[in-house]
Amino acid sequence: MKTSINLIMNGSRIEVSVLPNETLLDLLRNKLDVKSVKAACWQGDCGLCTVLLNGIPVKSCLILAIEAENSSITTVEGLSDRENLSKLQKAFIKHGAVQCGFCTPAFLLMSHYITSKQEIFSRSEIEHFLNGIICRCTGYKQIVDSIIEVQEQRD
Amino acid sequence: MNTTISYTSLPEFEFKSPNILKEVLSLLNIHRSDAVILAGGTDLLPELRHRIKCPKVIIDIKKIPELNELNLSDKFLNIGAAVPIAKVLSFPKLESLFTALYQSLQDFCDEILRNRATIGGNIATSSPAADSAGPLLVFDAIIEINSISKGKHTVKLENFFKGVKTNCLEPDELITRIRLPIPEVETKSAYFKMKRGAEDIALVGVAGASNKTRTVFAYSAVAPTPILINASAILAQNRNQTKEDLFQLIWNQIQGRIQPISDVRSGKEYRFHIAEIYTRKMLQEFLK
């Protein structure tokens, strides 16, 4: 049985109808056409389907769409527009933190979450934060470098 | 009609998301084994994908206020069944009072999954490798259960697990809280975990807690269920022995209880070896 749910998708209020057995990942990719949220392992290991649910990173393959009712969802499209990249996106480009690019949306969302916290984190703390997302190109150093640079730019 | 079973899809079910506990219990009372409880979903969704579970009804418990409570009261730390592990970790006194639990939760799956996964779910799943089980066992955790047929009652965690992924919960019963008695002052505790990579489950998990009168160890991934071993009597009766002799006496007792298997993650000999090394190392720290 379909249920209609309300969401705030990257700042815009939307209403969609979902089936109970649709995951948030299914909803984002197939109904809302957000292809930056990647479908890879389907069991919470790789982290490439990470989105921010009410500002908190979650793996959308492990959440039913219906559980997200009345929540706000942020995908990488919500971090900036094409003309004005965020500081993190610029840092990712500068440090070569994008290789094949498949994991980049997930890492940008996680990096946004880390840098929006009040504290300044050490390299090992940042690495610990990132341990739920897998980069198959194994370019982790550049990603951590980008986060450290953005942290340092803050006052 | 599409009849292909794919890991990218979930089986069909009815979804219920009650706002009050009574409604959860009455749904469980009606649907019993046809229903499963959804808390964080980090175990349940992969099980649905692989058709290990195909429930008729899924009952989400995250909207129930009392299941989201996390507080210190009348000598207990109370953890509601729907409280995500990230929230438990941020509880101010957790590290100082329950060091072993803090250490196990810090290393529990990964940063992102901890925002959803719950201790209630970890205990209800009853995996032999459950990371939170060992630390909860050494702190004498009490599992609070509720159902319409039996009402609110408690079971010591030590008596909760029955086998690999099985426990004493009846089909109509719900875990509502995990209650941890505040340990005596000067209780030392620790959790050592051997694993393969950043987000792996334990190949062997050893938890321990020790104070003047009580020293206990708990083991995960070396028996069909997490197990608790009380070493207090051995330590009390052999005060003049060397640390290594004390270890041997305790290890003799433990050796008879653990029965590791070989699987995709580790061989049984290696599990045995790590359990021994970790127990010795932990005992040495406790006896300092």
Report on the structure:
The complex is a heterodimer of chains A (155) and B (288). Chain A has 155 residues and is an alpha+beta fold. Chain A has two domains: 73 residues, Roll (Ubiquitin-like (UB roll)); 67 residues, DNA polymerase, domain 1 (Orthogonal Bundle). In chain A, 32% of the residues lie in helices and 16% in strands. Chain A has five helices and five strands. In chain A, strands 2-1-5-3-4 form a five-stranded mixed beta sheet, sandwiched between helices. The model of chain A has no long low-confidence stretch (mean pLDDT 96). Chain B has 288 residues and is of the alpha+beta class. Chain B has three domains: 47 residues, Uridine Diphospho-n-acetylenolpyruvylglucosamine Reductase, domain 2 (2-Layer Sandwich); 117 residues, Uridine Diphospho-n-acetylenolpyruvylglucosamine Reductase, domain 3; 100 residues, Enolase-like, domain 1 (2-Layer Sandwich), CATH 3.30.390.50. Helix content of chain B is 30%, strand content 23%. Chain B has ten helices and 14 strands. Chains A and B meet through strand 4 of A and helix 2 of B.
